[in-house]
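Dear colleagues,

For the upcoming journal club I promised to circulate an example of a predicted protein-ligand complex. I picked one with manganese (II) ion because it came up in last month's discussion. The inputs are reproduced below in full, followed by the predicted structure.
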Amino acid sequence: LVAEDNPINQTLATITLQQAGHAVTVAGDGRAAVEAYQEGSFDVILMDIQMPELDGFEATAEIRKLEQGKTERIPIIALTAHAMKGDRERCLAAGMDGYVSKPIDVEELKAELAKVVGEEEEAAPAEAVTEEAPEAPAEEAVVEQAPPEPEAASEEAEPEESLLDKEGLLRRAAGSWQVVEMVCAQLLDTIPNSLEAIAGAVRDKDGTRLKKEAHTYKGMVANFGAKSVAELAAQLEHHPVGEKPEEAEAILEKLRARSARLQEAVANLKPD
Ligand code: MN
């Protein structure tokens, strides 16, 4: 069960789990996660921390409460955007069993899954399901890296890799170009509304909303290795917009401009 509110993270977590041989159900918020847990039978839950309705800590608390008196205890792995010290401890203290930071690193997630689920009965069913994901072309695609093109670098004001990390994205998409195309379409679909939500919070000088919207945006573009865009979003996430609205406006303008370049780069992304 994947409990995650961001559609791009949903897609990437789903493909990673499918490749590891799991069948996946997605819940879009904490309340839906608790309901899915009650209705279904799952061997592990990936639990995003920041979600609407119930956050990951609250949803975990409800599930642990529902489990009382039962013999089985479902492993829960936290998905968190914070890479801060103490986060792991906080997740474990809240009744979770593992912890993976976002953007999700495929190997890290697999290692954490192996740790909390254990592989003894996983191996056999895994092979049947992974058939749909061809291994060989995926690996070729990752290995055959074209060297950075000099003409592209000279045209751009900043190095291409800080705008978009194609290699990293393909890796997060489990080597599937089809998945890359899917999440690129999702990103292009989401950017305008997300930017409007951020702009609205800046306009209203609403620090709480700005923090939430900028955080969501940062997490979304991080999957694409869009460091320069994520950095600006991080500045807004922690910005005292109530005190310095003009400064926030200026950062927002930069974010808009750089996001436009990211959109262009994503729209023109092609396989090697
Ligand atoms: Mn979230």
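Two points we might discuss: Residues 76 and 96 are 5 Å apart (CA to CA). The two ends are 33 Å apart (CA to CA).

See you all on Thursday,
B. R.
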